[in-house]
Structure to design on (468 residues):
């Protein structure tokens, strides 16, 4: 009975997916004149909507749906019909057609290699995902703008809470060259490698809450690249992307109205109530790496059948709108729920995660929480307590297969909900966690299907849905 209630609260996750469905809906309804200019692959395309990429989803949950409107559709209207890069567009059309062709196969699982397969219990559509991933490997070319100087451009933090920002920028700048091109006219996507975290460090005066210097920097950067190169103006920035894990990433992107409304923004702070648009923006996992490395304790979690003595664990400050509610109801209230504001010095945070069945991941000052990825590493089932959070890679992954989502309004019933999850389901969720762990790992150099590639794939998916 409890399990059913949980299912209801998990529905939020699928709302995100509904949003993805709408992307395709928008684009398939549009600019027919243009699309006719592509020959066979595009004709093929029309037969199968990208809807199938995300599989059958429950269309409950209204929030992302409300974000989507004709207004957004108009942002993607063709800007110019005379692109020198018709060949690029044809390649993209072929990629779309290939994805759509396999999307209808609906295999229960798809083999990646002798050691890996992906299954429909965890992925929305294994065939479509694997195909779009392979199309990315086969075709994707990203141009990284050379404009701008250190320390704010071409670098970012690779330690602590904003690790994912710096590691992605570094990977694009210095890592695998497979996806990079030095010839911008051959690129599908254009990356603006500035770091909002470093803007905060170097441009912001502490305690002023004056973000103008950040907005000015972003505005100047876009002005610079759009004056020096033809690419930005060609699409009004629609094939350009930025990435930031800082809480103020979304605010900084307001420095240019087109960047905000049209470009792909890859953000940890993916708050759909604050302009994050799951149709075009990408939710970036937040990863906290003290010293730049995963804590050794989290490298090899205990076997799935090992006893976890604690039902649930959380430790963290009273930040943001959700945690006060959680702490109010549960701090020091119940011996099964280990809920701390500050963890006593003699206790170890990661040991706690490894000994707990559920790890609570409430929003803080922003929607994302590094706890989610830590919980994935610890194979402690993440319990997402967050309003308006668009979860990372949710266009590909079924979050309900490896996490719980509990509505903030149900926090008072949290214990009841958690003890209502059957042992069977706990084992399945843990299996799910083991399955998706690789997507949340940062490797140096990057490896197939790891976090770098999953981020890039999310951006690629949005580019695939784009028409000029
Ligand atoms: C979460 O709770 C609020 C307030 O009760 C409600 O309006 C909302 O629909 C709920 N969301 C889901 C997905 O159940
Ligand atoms: C999917 O299933 C079809 C039909 O059973 C099979 O021919 C194909 O090889 C499968 N695809 C993959 C990628 O496993
Ligand atoms: C599969 O795993 C084995 C043992 O770990 C390894 O030697 C082999 O290279 C792996 N194969 C692939 C395709 O990754
Ligand atoms: C792009 O448009 C802006 C504003 O209209 C203009 O100032 C700029 O010169 C244009 N860039 C190029 C390369 O033509
Ligand atoms: C998300 O945005 C809404 C609307 O601005 C805000 O009320 C809420 O506090 C934000 N969530 C977090 C965790 O910051």
């Amino acid at each position: 009975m409890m399990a059913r209630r949980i299912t209801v609260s998990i529905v939020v996750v699928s709302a995100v997916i509904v949003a993805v469905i709408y992307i395709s809906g928008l684009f398939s309804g549009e600019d027919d004149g243009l699309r006719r200019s592509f020959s066979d692959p595009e004709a093929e395309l029309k037969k199968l909507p990208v809807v199938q990429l995300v599989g059958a989803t429950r269309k409950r949950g209204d929030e992302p749906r409300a974000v989507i409107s004709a207004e957004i559709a108009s942002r993607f209207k063709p800007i110019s019909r005379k692109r020198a890069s018709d060949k690029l567009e044809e390649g993209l059309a072929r990629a779309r057609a290939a994805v759509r062709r396999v999307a209808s196969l609906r295999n229960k699982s798809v083999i990646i290699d002798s050691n890996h397969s992906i299954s429909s219990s965890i992925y929305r559509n294994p065939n479509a995902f694997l195909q779009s991933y392979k199309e990315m490997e086969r075709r994707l070319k990203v141009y990284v703008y050379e404009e701008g100087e250190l320390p704010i451009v071409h670098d970012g933090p690779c330690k602590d809470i904003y690790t994912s920002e710096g590691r992605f920028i570094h990977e694009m700048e210095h890592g695998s060259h497979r996806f990079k091109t030095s010839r911008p006219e051959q690129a599908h996507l254009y990356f603006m490698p500035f770091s909002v975290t470093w803007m905060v460090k170097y441009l912001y005066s502490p305690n002023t809450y004056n973000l103008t210097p950040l907005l000015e920097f972003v505005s100047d950067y876009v002005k610079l690249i759009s004056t020096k190169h033809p690419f930005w103006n060609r699409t009004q920035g629609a094939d350009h992307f930025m990435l930031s894990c800082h809480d103020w990433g979304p605010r900084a992107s307001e420095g240019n109205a087109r960047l905000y409304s049209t470009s792909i923004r890859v953000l940890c702070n993916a708050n759909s109530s604050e302009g994050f648009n799951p149709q075009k923006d990408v939710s970036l996992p937040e990863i906290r790496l003290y010293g730049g490395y995963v804590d050794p304790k989290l490298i090899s979690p205990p076997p799935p059948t090992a006893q976890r003595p604690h039902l649930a664990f959380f430790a963290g400050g009273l930040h943001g709108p959700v945690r006060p509610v959680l702490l109010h109801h549960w701090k020091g209230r119940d011996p099964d729920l280990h809920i701390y504001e500050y963890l006593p010095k003699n206790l170890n945070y990661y040991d706690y995660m490894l000994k707990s069945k559920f790890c609570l991941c409430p929003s803080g000052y922003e929607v994302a929480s590094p706890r989610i990825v830590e919980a994935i590493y610890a194979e402690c089932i993440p319990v997402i307590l967050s309003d308006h959070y668009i979860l990372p890679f949710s266009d590909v992954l079924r979050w309900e297969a490896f996490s719980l989502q509990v509505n903030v309004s149900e926090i008072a019933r949290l214990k009841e909900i958690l003890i209502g999850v059957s042992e069977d389901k706990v084992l399945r969720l843990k299996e799910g966690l083991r399955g998706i762990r690789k997507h949340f790992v940062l490797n140096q150099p990057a490896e197939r299907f790891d976090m770098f590639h999953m981020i890039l794939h999310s951006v690629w998916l949005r580019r695939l849905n784009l028409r000029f």
Notes: Residues 271, 273-274, 320-321, 363, 366-367, 388 surround 2-acetamido-2-deoxy-beta-D-glucopyranose (ligand 5) (CB under 6 Å). Residues 16-138 form one domain.
